[in-house]
Amino acid sequence: MNIADQTFPAIDGANEDRAQAIRDQLRDAIVDRRLAPGTKLSEGEVGTLFDVSRTVARAALQMLSFEGLVRTERNRGAFVANPSPEEARQVFASRRLIEPGIAIAAAGRMTSADVAAFKTQLEEEGRFIAERGPTARRSEIKASGDFHLLLASVAGNVILQRFMEELVARSSLVIALYGRSGISSCGHNEHVQILEALEAGNAERASALMLHHIDHIEADLDLRVRSGPALRQALEF
Amino acid sequence: MNIADQTFPAIDGANEDRAQAIRDQLRDAIVDRRLAPGTKLSEGEVGTLFDVSRTVARAALQMLSFEGLVRTERNRGAFVANPSPEEARQVFASRRLIEPGIAIAAAGRMTSADVAAFKTQLEEEGRFIAERGPTARRSEIKASGDFHLLLASVAGNVILQRFMEELVARSSLVIALYGRSGISSCGHNEHVQILEALEAGNAERASALMLHHIDHIEADLDLRVRSGPALRQALEF
DNA sequence: TCAGAAAAGATTGCATACGATTTCCACCAG
DNA sequence: CTGGTGGAAATCGTATGCAATCTTTTCTGA
Predict the structure, then answer these.
(1) Which one of B66, B93, B170 has the shortest CB-CB distance to A157?
(2) What residue stretches are annotated with the HTH gntR-type domain (chains A, B) (predicted)?
């Protein structure tokens, strides 16, 4: 898969930062798996695709590199990240630490508008699961992550929200690489249960459910190292 | 305080990324309060000071902006962040959520080398407390943060480690802005106790002590809003 | 035929240039 | 004296050019 095969919507009104707009679109593409791990993102190509100079493209890639979605090597360029099993474990360890707390914080702040937003979100998630095909599957992974991001936004801590954005994005990459089967239907169920607990104001239960939910997601991964370290490194691209 | 009044050690062997080296030095200056919140960091000045082009200076400032230590405004430039009381609360809420977990993880991984490193660290911290004067005070705040960073590195999760780097740096800013008195001697004591628990392998106790420790740090802050919101916003720079 | 060296091509790192935007300040009308 | 106005200076956003580095291809000698 090459970045040149991608199509991106034109950048909207240049009022906002163009580099940021490019970062958002690239991030979506990575999280949606339209860009496979390891894909080279050359400054020139990105610039041409979005019709900006290398300067701006470079800034966008630098941002993605901070978020851990892109790995940059000096004098070699930027590549879609290819997280190792160890990195994958750390991503989920971080989520286990943070998300139960976010659930507790959110439970104390849910408004009826928030509940409505969650219901809309979960409905959409359900639709993608019902559908079949690779496109629906991508949308499903994305929607599943959006549930967690919505929760983080309700929790009302912008710092934790940003951390979660990074963790969810990296999780998508990890699931793409190491995912085994249909976490989805099971996961959707768990999302529903978490929402019920939140709606009932049962913070403890929401927190515990969240912890189990993360465990389930991680349990579906196959994080065994596939070959000896030497070969592994040699093939790592 | 102007950035031009600062002196910075020359950047070392250009093997590493120069922008990164500049970021590190600026971060130290901000955390040490040699650069006051609100100070303008113009690309040109930074570039001149470090003898690089604006391109590189800009990249360094962009990194700091991601970490929340610098706020950038379009067409206006970069300024040392000036966290609001609300931001301050969120920084500490995040730490309360993350650090007890880090303490638990670290407790299970402490080696004797780690213990030695902690002891060295705490000795140094003690020395700065014994000394008096503004320079020692700065070093003391820095050393206090380093304790938490050391703990994060022992915990062995590089993602959480990076989150902690950001949180500790932002905490230093917050303490500089809203700190009241001598958290230090008290804080040092608590660090010692935490280390004792870690050494004894008592993860639960280390975690609980950490939580209290963070509470104490935050309790020493004066986060009351000083004036009406209208004036406050007008004066916010 | 194949390993190794040399050259060609591509890509990044960085500096610089130029237009656009904002800030500052002198000036003037009310 | 206050408040608005115009232009100059400063600063930012972005494109582009050149040197350094890496990659690939080609050539040579065994």
Answers:
(1) B93
(2) 16-83
Sequence letter at residue A39: T
pLDDT in tens, A168-222: 999 999 998 998 865 556 789 999 999 999 999 999 999 999 999 999 999 999 9
> How confident is the model over A206-221, as pLDDT tens digits?
999 999 999 999 999 9
What residues in B contact A159, CB-CB < 8 Å?
A: 68, 87, 90-91, 94, 167, 170
Distance CA B14, CA B28 (A): 19
DSSP symbol at B129: H
Contact A17 B157 (CB under 8 A): no
Tokens for B217, please give them: 């740090």
Split at pLDDT 50, 70, 90, the class of A226 is: low
Other Cβ atoms less than 10 A from the Cβ of A204: the count is 12
Asked whether the predicted pLDDT for residue A237 surpasses 50, the reply is no
For residue A74, which residues of chain B lie inside 8 Å, CB to CB? Answer: 17
Q: Do B157 and A94 touch (CB under 8 A)?
A: yes
A141 vs A66: CA distance, rounded Å: 22
Q: How far is B180 from chain A (nearest CA, A)?
A: 24
CATH numbers and ranges of domains, chain B: 16-80 (1.10.10.10), 85-219 (1.20.120.530)
Share of chain A above pLDDT 70, in %: 88
Report the alpha-carbon distance of residue B211 to residue B46 in Å, rounded.
38
Taking the CA of residue B79 and the C1' sugar atom of nucleotide D4, their distance in angstroms comes to 30
Contact B97 A160 (CB under 8 A): yes
Closest CA to B66 of A215, A101, A162: A162
The phi, psi pair for A41, rounded to 5°, reads -115, 90
Least-confidence region, from A131-135, B12-16, B178-182: B12-16
